[in-house]
């Protein structure tokens, strides 16, 4: 369905600053994102959508540079033909049938009329809209419109698929279907993906690299694949006695310790493990009441980056 | 063999034409708009027929004057028909792109805002061409064949006025209807706004010209500005002579305002202040 993604970095940002309406939305962002599928995470207003729109050339940077697939942003048709974009909000042209809309957009991406028509049918059937393709798009349900946005984004076989909240407003089966379709594109067609989403499980499932934005700046850039390989240790510990002394003793032997509610959240990259935690408890005269091993989930990493874990 | 794809702005123009022609009322009006050239042709045929001229008592130079009067009337009717067609079809090709967020889908392709505007304006102008300068020039060519041998040589400027005047008028109409549609986004409101702008400008121009005794002020009205440009060639005495440069300036101002409105309103991403 789509073309090869190539080996250039997906996105390179060099001091990228974007100001909109007198407000700095992206503030000197520098990052190199070269994953096969990159997730953009962050709270509302963090700058995710602005970053995507800047990469598409919708916003002009106030300072700095950005490149997508090795091509500078603003390099016109050469870059636009390589990108498929699925916007966050409702996006259709009323009065057009699904196939006509997708065909027109394929033609705008440089396909000739016949090829555009063939690909439009192919993309709509692939997205599961085969039955509805001759209906005018305003009659589509919310889920169908999401699928239509995906079909138009892939109709010209882009190298990079930019998805802005693709599972918004979808019920669980439709969400599952959407994720499967994107996985298919990523794994079978070699399409690279830039995904902005509030749904951490979606990002965790689809992406191998994540950039977490906070107030227009990257709070963290994570290689999820490496994180998974390292299987970093994470334990939730509850102790009775002098908790502060226990925390200090654990930190002294290489643990990262943070408070999480009534409990302590203890992390370690290789090296120390539960035995060292019990030893620290012994040394400080505290007792480990509860010790629960957990994988360091994207949620934890996200909350840590947001400063919401004590 | 792989066929060549059209440039994006031509794709936009092609779909704009198809979209306008899909409207039943537009198609009906379009067919009606072909009536004036047909009537004009019939009148010119009568003027070229010696026995009929004799019966009507028209002689020599008077036939030529009558032909010129036919072209003046034809120009006015075609300009009016172009206005009606632009008002009917224009909002259909812009409002739907803006109301439901379709514009980002278009502008994420190798198509900039200028290309989008070029395509839409081109679509409107291409569709209006057969009912304005296309049929006008056809009538002129047939008149050249029907009337006396030297008629066409003496009236080349008429052909120029038909071509240039209608191209300018349809371009202004296309930009105006796109700008009003982009501004209000609602089809009916855009049609009303376009009509209102032309009526208000024409009224303001006429009244202020009378009150201030300055004919230049009539050029505030876009149709009057175009009329001022074609009047000398069409032998019209209704428009004061010598207003050509000012009419060019008035038309250029209208075009610039419409383009500024379009560039302000056609944005792939809204910025919330």
Describe what this molecule looks like in 3D.
- The complex is a heterodimer of chains A (310) and B (273).
- By secondary structure, chain A is an alpha/beta fold.
- Chain A has two domains: 11-226, 3-Layer(aba) Sandwich (Rossmann fold); 231-305, Alpha-Beta Plaits.
- Helices cover 35% and strands 29% of the residues of chain A.
- Chain A contains eleven helices and 14 strands.
- Chain A has a six-stranded mixed sheet with strand order 6-7-8-3-9-10, sandwiched between helices. Chain A has a four-stranded antiparallel sheet with strand order 2-1-4-5, with helices on one face. In chain A, strands 12-13-11-14 form a four-stranded antiparallel sheet, with helices on one face.
- In chain A, a hairpin with a 2-residue loop joins strand 4 and strand 5 (71-72).
- The longest helix of chain A is centred in the middle third of the chain and has 17 residues, at 172-188.
- The N and C termini of chain A lie far apart (46 Å).
- In chain B, 79% of the residues lie in helices and 0% in strands.
- Chain B has one domain (8-265).
- Chain B has 13 helices and no strands.
- Chain B has 273 residues and is mostly helical.
- Chain B is globular.
- In chain B, helix 1 (8-21) packs across helix 7 and helix 10 crosses helix 11 (187-212).
- The longest helix of chain B has 39 residues, at 61-99.
- The chains are: A alpha/beta (310), B mainly alpha (273).
- Chain A binds chain B through residues 20-22, 53, 56, 58-59, 76-77, 80-81, 83, 85, 87, 89-96, 104-105, 107-115, 138, 149, 152, and chain B through 2-6, 8, 11-12, 15, 19, 22, 92, 96-97, 99-102, 104-112, 267-269, 271-273.
What characteristics describe this protein?
heterodimer; A: 310 residues; alpha/beta; Rossmann fold; Alpha-Beta Plaits; 2 domains; six-stranded mixed β-sheet; 11 helices; B: 273 residues; mainly alpha; globular
Architecture blueprint of SSEs:
The complex is a heterodimer of chains A (310) and B (273).
Chain A: E1 11-20, E2 23-33, E3 37-41, H1 48-55, E4 63-68, E5 71-72, H2 77-80, E6 83-86, H3 98-108, H4 113-126, H5 142-154, E7 160-164, H6 172-188, E8 192-196, H7 200-206, E9 209-214, E10 217-223, H8 224-230, E11 233-240, H9 243-252, E12 256-260, E13 263-268, H10 274-284, E14 287-295, H11 298-305
Parallel strand pairs in A: 3-8, 3-9, 6-7, 7-8
Antiparallel strand pairs in A: 1-2, 1-4, 4-5, 9-10, 11-13, 11-14, 12-13
Helix pairs in contact in A: 3-4, 4-5, 9-10
Chain B: H1 8-21, H2 24-33, H3 35-48, H4 50-56, H5 61-99, H6 103-107, H7 113-128, H8 130-146, H9 151-154, H10 156-184, H11 187-212, H12 222-234, H13 244-265
Helix pairs in contact in B: 1-5, 1-7, 2-5, 3-5, 3-8, 5-8, 5-10, 5-11, 7-10, 8-10, 10-11, 10-12, 10-13, 12-13
